[in-house]
């Protein structure tokens, strides 16, 4: 894991190059106040005050220079100077005006690379100084959690199966003194029949499992974090086309988010009794694969007519949510790369959040806005509940017609959550299809910082 602490340091007045981060609306006034050589450099670089314009500003000597960046990001944005974190020479920097604040996160993340399969070019650290040293620790934690999500999702399915997810949770538990248990393979058949049904077609060394971590004082409020851990999704017998299968290593993105969030909770020692549940499977194809038309029993007791083997994530989540509810938590959060319908509705950057509690929904939206990690609330629309009706079982897993796919998936999950428990479901993409500063193409934490904001507000 990248040592993010090396990229941030308290400002004690030590030598550092300046970064001028100027908003387009203030660019003309700023330029008018600069010396002639600065104005000459700005003109030579054709900087006209548009967002993204940049230039090296000369000083008295060859090594005495500063950086200009024209940026229209808000001062509260983590990405305000993120484009510089990976592009400047190694060395120490400070903002010429004001404190970096939230921008420390983007600066640090810009220097993280996924290097499991390809070595990164060696370079020294770019250190950003801050007069708010108390913010460094929290920034480093968020950077570590974000990088963990990215690295887990970017890892190929050959190296990130159910067993590797279990190893990740086990290592996290060992680090924080938490207890970790796991039910695997055929032992799932009685207690967690849908996790077993979805994962039983995989090879023995990639057997399905329910991974659980518990931490904290039992006297504190109990919360449950549930993450979808489909380590690869072929679609099962309703097989995906090759284009749809291409990115299915990321179908454990919900698990990656919840593992990272659990790490944040334990590192900050929130006053909670934490219960992390990761149903981990590979949705494979073999003679033992579950079939369209099969009626599956659930841990809850409801029966499900399987109308689509490619709607498997909600099946494994249902058993995990049922187990979470048995602990009588006051809050359940689940994250899942659940539906393409959510992407059609809101695109790749904006995960929908569903909640059965108005205060919890409001907290998620507020925290997402504050952290520049936005979500959009979609409804648990009771009028669509009939779409889950089955002629032979208590419900189907995927309605015909394709209407409101993200909503009906959330309604399916709602049937396994007690009405008395506050619950939120985030349908995250966990992937960035195009790179942005400090946000490379690939695995991405979408909704993680928002969820952390919710938990900090409630239990910090």
**Oligomerization:** single chain
Radius of gyration: 24 Å
Please work out how many helical segments DSSP would assign: 15
The secondary-structure class comes to alpha/beta
| Global shape | elongated
CATH architecture assignment of the largest domain: 3-Layer(aba) Sandwich
Please tally the β strands and state the result. Answer: 20
Q: Main beta sheet, described?
A: 9 strands, mixed
Residue runs with pLDDT of under 50 for 5 or more positions: none
- Helix content bin: 25-40%
Average pLDDT taken over every residue: 97
Strand percent estimate: 15-25%
InterPro entries: Leucine_aapep/pepB, Macro_dom-like, Peptidase_M17_C, Peptidase_M17_N_1
EC number: 3.4.11.23
Family: Belongs to the peptidase M17 family.
Organism: Sphingomonas dokdonensis
Quick overview of this protein structure:
It is built from 15 helices and 20 strands. It is 32% helix and 21% strand. α4 crosses α5 (134-154) and α11 (313-326) runs parallel beside α14 (405-414).
Could you give the topology of this structure?
Blueprint: E1 8-10, E2 17-22, H1 27-32, H2 36-44, E3 54-58, E4 65-70, H3 82-85, E5 91-95, H4 103-109, E6 126-130, H5 134-154, H6 162-176, E7 179-184, H7 188-191, H8 193-199, E8 209-215, E9 222-227, E10 229-233, H9 242-245, H10 253-267, E11 273-283, E12 295-297, E13 303-305, H11 313-326, E14 331-336, H12 340-346, E15 352-355, H13 358-370, E16 376-377, E17 395-396, H14 405-414, E18 422-427, E19 431-432, E20 442-443, H15 448-459
Parallel strand pairs: 1-6, 2-4, 2-5, 5-6, 9-11, 9-14, 10-11, 13-17, 14-18, 15-16
Antiparallel strand pairs: 3-4, 7-8, 8-11, 12-13, 15-18, 19-20
């Amino acid at each position: 894991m990248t040592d993010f602490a090396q990229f941030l340091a308290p400002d004690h007045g030590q030598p550092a190059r300046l970064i001028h981060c100027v908003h387009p609306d203030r660019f003309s006034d700023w330029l008018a106040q600069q010396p002639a050589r600065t104005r000459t450099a700005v003109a030579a670089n054709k900087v006209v005050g548009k967002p993204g314009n940049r230039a090296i500003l000369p000083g008295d000597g060859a090594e005495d220079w500063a950086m200009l960046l024209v940026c229209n990001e808000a001062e509260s944005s983590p990405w305000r100077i993120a484009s510089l974190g990976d592009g400047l020479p190694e060395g120490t920097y400070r903002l010429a005006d004001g404190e970096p604040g939230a921008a420390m996160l983007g600066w640090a993340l810009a220097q993280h690379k996924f290097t499991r399969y390809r070595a990164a070019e060696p370079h020294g650290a770019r250190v950003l100084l801050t007069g708010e040293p108390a913010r460094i620790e929290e920034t480093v934690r968020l950077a570590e959690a974000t990088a963990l999500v990215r690295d887990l999702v970017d890892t190929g399915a050959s190296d990130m199966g159910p067993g590797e997810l279990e190893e990740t949770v086990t290592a996290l538990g060992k680090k924080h003194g938490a207890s970790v248990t796991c039910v695997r393979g055929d032992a799932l058949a009685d207690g967690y029949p849908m996790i077993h049904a979805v994962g039983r077609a995989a090879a023995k060394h990639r057997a399905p499992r329910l991974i659980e971590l518990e931490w904290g004082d039992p006297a504190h409020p109990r919360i449950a974090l549930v993450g979808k851990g489909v380590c690869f999704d072929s679609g099962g017998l309703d097989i995906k086309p090759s284009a749809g299968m291409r990115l299915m290593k990321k179908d454990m993105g919900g698990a990656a988010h919840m593992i990272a969030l659990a790490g944040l909770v334990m590192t900050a020692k929130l006053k909670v009794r934490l219960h992390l549940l990761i149903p981990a499977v590979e949705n494979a194809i073999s003679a033992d694969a579950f079939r369209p038309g099969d009626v599956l029993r659930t841990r809850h007791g409801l029966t499900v007519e399987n109308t689509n083997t490619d709607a498997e994530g909600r099946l494994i989540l249902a058993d995990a949510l049922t187990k979470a509810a048995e602990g009588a938590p006051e809050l359940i959060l689940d994250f899942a790369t659940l539906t393409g319908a959510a992407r059609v509705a809101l695109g790749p950057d904006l995960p929908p959040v569903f909640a059965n509690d108005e205060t919890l929904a409001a907290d998620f939206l507020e925290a997402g806005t504050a952290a520049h990690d936005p979500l959009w609330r979609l409804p648990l629309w009771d009028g669509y509940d009939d779409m889950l009706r089955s002629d032979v079982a208590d419900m189907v897993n995927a309605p015909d017609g394709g209407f409101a796919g993200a909503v009906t998936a959330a309604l399916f999950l709602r049937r396994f959550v007690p009405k008395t428990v506050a619950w939120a479901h985030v349908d995250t993409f966990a992937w960035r299809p195009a790179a942005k500063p400090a946000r490379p193409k690939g695995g991405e934490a979408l909704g993680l910082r928002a969820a952390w904001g919710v938990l900090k507000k409630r239990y910090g």
